[in-house]
Design goal:
heterodimer, A: about 220 residues, mainly alpha, B: about 210 residues, alpha/beta, Rossmann fold, 2 domains, five-stranded antiparallel sheet, five-stranded parallel sheet, Cyt_c_CcmB_bac (chain A)
């Protein structure tokens, strides 16, 4: 446990030192969403219709932007091989790293989302549905994304490959998340969609750490 | 009982057979010097010995037990110093070493870390981000682990003398002899001539096409 605590502290202080780099996905998220009212026109009903989809697509894209730094620096400076040799269970260590990544690069997106919901004329029930889907859904992005980062970290130019690998995998999540917000806009129950996203989250929480650990070991060869 | 031994080890990298049928055995208090030209597979051999990479065939034993089955026991008794230093550029030397010790279950206090850095001639540089130190100073920071994890039974060192100045080489050589005479085992590669006043086993790898 001591080793995992040390890893958590180190990753948090590393994130703090590199906060300029962490701001980039957040600014990208805000800018992409501000482009839509300008491009599509300020008509409230149109914006309300496309709003949830826009926010979710922007969240997926900006999470991909910051994803690579999850293991890239550690792989390049050799911290990763020292971590593998440290005796700390690698799956648990991977989970800690994913948690820090979610906390530092995705939680800010969720915190800024009320402002963006205002840009897109979302109603209050729609906004709450959006926040719930983001809170349960974005950890899936980090967990599944980390497997792909683990696999591509040994390649020199993994950036675009990463997006090509991951975007198709996130389609079901996008469908259920936007459908939940749509139901909320029609004053319908959306607990069904939330339950499915929750199931996806628990499933990836249970299996992804082992897959990430395996991917990281494979990338050492 | 040998600290580390192998049985018919062979490694293939990118369809090239680096070496096969390597049998080695390192007892406590002995020094194994792995020699060979560039590309002969020295680093690959060391990475296989640490367990980072699986060999094509053959087995690595730590105290007569397969390393895959030793788990934490092997990890707590090994220090690996590779080409990549394993220090983060944005953290200071002290932060890096404190994290490394915590994650490797080594109990040290901050004072010990400062004293070790002093021995390695890094006084005044303890709290600066490692990225702004010179190459040799960064390597000294990483080498401080050899002082901090004093109870390890085995050191695997890949080119530890690279980028060190004369004084650094002397400090490290003295430390190696001290460690060996206290019963530690060392596996080392070096392109500089290894001039240690200590009996040395040699293993020479040939470059194969």
């Amino acid at each position: 446990m001591n080793g995992l605590g040390a890893l958590l502290r180190r990753d948090l202080s590393l994130a703090y030192r590199q906060r300029a780099e962490l701001m980039q996905p957040l600014l990208f998220f805000i800018l992409v969403i501000t482009l839509f009212p300008l491009g599509v026109g300020p008509e409230p009903n149109t914006l309300k219709m496309i709003g949830p989809g826009v926010i979710w697509v922007a969240a997926i894209l900006s999470s991909l932007l910051g994803l690579e730094r999850l293991f890239r620096d550690d792989f390049q400076d050799g911290s990763l091989e020292q971590l593998i040799l440290s005796g700390v269970p690698l799956a648990a260590a991977a989970l800690v790293k994913v948690f820090v990544h979610w906390l530092t690069s995705i939680l800010p997106l969720i915190i800024i989302s009320p402002l963006l919901a205002l840009f897109l004329h979302l109603t209050e029930p729609m906004y709450w549905a959006l926040v719930f889907t983001l809170l349960i859904g974005t950890p899936i992005l980090s967990l599944i994304g980390a497997i792909a980062v683990g696999l591509t970290v040994g390649l020199n130019r993994g950036g675009v490959l990463l997006a090509l690998l991951l975007l198709p995998v996130f389609i079901p999540l996008l469908i259920f998340a936007t459908s939940a917000v749509e139901s909320a806009s029609m004053q319908l129950q959306y607990s069904g969609q939330l339950a499915i996203i929750g199931a996806m989250f628990l499933f990836s929480l249970a299996l992804a750490p082992f897959a990430i650990a395996y991917a990281l070991r494979v990338s050492q060869t | 009982m040998a600290v580390l031994s192998t049985q018919n080890l062979s490694v293939i990298k990118r369809d090239r057979l680096l070496f096969d049928q390597v049998n080695l055995s390192v007892d406590s208090g002995s020094l194994l010097y792995v020699k060979g030209p560039n590309g002969a597979g020295k680093t690959s051999l060391l990475r296989v010995l640490t367990g980072l990479v699986e060999p094509e065939s053959g087995i690595v034993f730590y105290q007569d037990k397969k390393i895959q089955k030793c788990g934490e026991d092997y990890a707590t008794n090994l220090v690996y110093f590779g080409h990549k230093l394993g220090v983060s550029g944005s953290l200071s030397a002290v932060e890096n070493l404190q994290y490394w010790c915590d994650s490797h279950q080594v109990k040290v206090d901050t004072n010990t870390i400062y004293q070790t850095l002093e021995k390695l001639n890094l006084v005044g540089l303890e709290d600066i981000p490692v990225a702004s130190l010179s190459a040799g100073q960064q390597r000294r920071t990483a080498l401080a682990r050899l002082w901090l994890k004093a109870d390890a039974k085995l050191w695997i060192l890949d080119e530890p003398f690279t980028a060190l100045d004369v004084q650094g080489i002397n400090v490290l050589s003295d430390k190696l002899i001290d460690y060996l005479s206290k019963g530690g085992a060392v596996i080392i590669t070096s392109h500089q001539l290894l001039e240690l006043d200590y009996p040395t086993q040699e293993l020479t790898l040939e470059y194969r096409i």
